[in-house]
Design goal:
With 97 residues, this protein is of the alpha+beta class. It has helices at residues 31-44, 70-88; strands spanning 13-19, 47-55, 58-65. It has a three-stranded antiparallel β-sheet, with helices on one face.
Length: 97
Amino acid sequence: MPGLRRYEIVGRTFFVTSVTFNRLPVLEGNEKMLLDTFHNITNRYSYDLIAWVIMPNHFHLILHTDNVSLSLILQRIKSSFSLTYNSVNNRKNRSIW
């Protein structure tokens, strides 16, 4: 939709779902890698990870942002996981999200 803007509020609690590209089961067997990514990003940015569920082709998060946008947090989580996953699996420039 043209002109549709993302409504962004910091200092709120959010429920987030993120699905892998083509719903491929990329996260199956890589749960620890994704969980480590959550924790690494939590240490770098100001947000609280309240709860999470990791399924083979998606994850759910409940998180509370402090003074950083939800978009930035998710971008950092996804890009960090993608870089690690592709490096470990000798993949180059392959989409995960």
